[in-house]
Amino acid sequence: MLELETASTPKVACVFPGQGSQAVGMGYALYQSSRLAREIFEEADSALQLPLSRLCFEGPEEELRETINAQPAILTTSIACLKAASEFGIPLKPALVAGHSLGEYTALVAANVIGFSDSVRLVRERGRLMQEAGKTKPGGMAAIIGLDEESLEEVCMETGSQIANFNCAGQIVISGTRESLARSMDLAKARGALRVIPLQVSGAFHSILMQPTVEGMTQAISQVNLGLPQVPIIANSTAQPMTSPDEVKEELLRQLCHCVQWQPSVEYMVDAGVSTFIEIGPGQILSGLIRRINSTVHVLNISDPESIKAINL
User: Whole-prediction pTM value?
Assistant: First the structure.
């Protein structure tokens, strides 16, 4: 789907958003204006045997926000953006790709590791298992703003919470049980955090509380064919490139219960020579994080026909 940049020095990276970027109406303008995007939404509806496209376009918002729905919806909209960009003649030839949590699956589709129908079924199952784990072992997540990593690690050790996302300097997300999360937020504020923001999610993602999802995802992943990445993919849990199907399988299971190393991933790509990042999918969450990680890189976003036509590479 994506072609590898042939230049010896990496310049462009394509990145794909995760859960939280969904919004009612996403993808509708693409569906109307792009044949290839329309085919992606129709393929998703067929693969899942449910009207996912209508949920993207019309909501209701609370249903779209559910983990079991949000994950396939965001992946589908992101791939629709990618297909529309191709149809509109935008030459996306990245040296590297990456995705934030769920977005890692989108990156796998873009890098031709997994077919789209398989991917949308896989993330629907991932969302279902994560949602169920959240009911079995209730928990949540919170963004901690303005507290250093060492202080927050000490807080987590005291409360039993875990660091779930290193998003950028000054923004770290933690996961834990409701009780441990409440204690963590209070302690973080007491120790100098500028803000603590509870996140609207159905569980303590990227923590040990997601362990019940591993068995189900091991089975689900074993039923799909994983190909050789056509573009190196930077793994969430290690911030290192994946270049083989075995590495991909290991990462998809590992990231369920381990921290998303987003800031180190972006720093790795910059150190590898990337000077332009293109966020492909709904919202601009990753674009904002990347700008905070490195203010010298060029950051673009593809989310609708207007933003695609505005791209100048």
Answer: 0.95
